[in-house]
Prior knowledge:
alpha+beta, Phosphatase 2c, domain 1, five-stranded antiparallel beta sheet, 6 helices, 13 strands, globular
Amino acid sequence: xxxxxxxxxxxxxxxxxxxxxxxxxxxxxxxxxxxxxxxxxxxxxxxxxxxxxxxxxxxxxxxxxxxxxxxxxxxxxxxxxxxxxxxxxxxxxxxxxxxxxxxxxxxxxxxxxxxxxxxxxxxxxxxxxxxxxxxxxxxxxxxxxxxxxxxxxxxxxxxxxxxxxxxxxxxxxxxxxxxxxxxxxxxxxxxxxxxxxxxxxxxxxxxxxxxxxxxxxxxxxxxxxxxxxxxxxxxxxxxxxxxxxxxxxxxxxxxxxxxxxxxxxxxxxxxxxxxxxxxxxxxxxxxxxxxxxxxxxxxxxxxxxxxxxxxxxxxxxxxxxx
Length: 322
């Protein structure tokens, strides 16, 4: 099957895995797809404060018939809709600026979501495009808020934050990404990175100036090329849309984990700890054992699909194309 392709919107593109664009194939009700989620953040061994913040929320839409004289047999099934939102933000800036930036990015985003008329419970190509464009506008507004706050307070001038978010509704998963916090998919023993770091070192590797294996130790590996803050709303996130399979786990993390723990070790820990709560603790512990030179934030979600939907996507051999 062909690899990822792109869906153009008014201002940005969505990287779509083939099975997400499945031509109307039936999907389980979103409320039938269950997620177990755990999260943990630690300041590490070196930094005096924790500039990382995270958020995990469940969103739900329900309808209940309170009173009616319409016979039950004539009423449609009143199914509920559910989704899960997970966010990791790693702040940067002098003094307390990084802590403020990551916290303000999450709280501002949550307020914007609450004010939104549509929350994106029914996913098709049209709704996916509208969801992505809506989130894009929200990210622009977050950046404007951070820019204005930094300009008005000398102590916060120049503050910024990464932001990596995953929104799942049923089997549809959207990943929004700015910076070098990461999102991974762990499926059937294989760990696949869903995001690409927005750093100078990664850009140099993409352009062929350095080898890919040099990125991890390059002195520009922490120099960000894309983040929230200081751009007066002129920002753009990477977006990926994929379809979940039963047993999938999604990992969101700040670079305090990935700087200390290589991907192979992350995969071994996820294999050894199927429970999200024990997995996040083991990942943080491993990062601390590796030196803990930065704040560490980890979110792990595990998805269970109903029995009738357990068939794997056609392209399941490549998790990033699911």
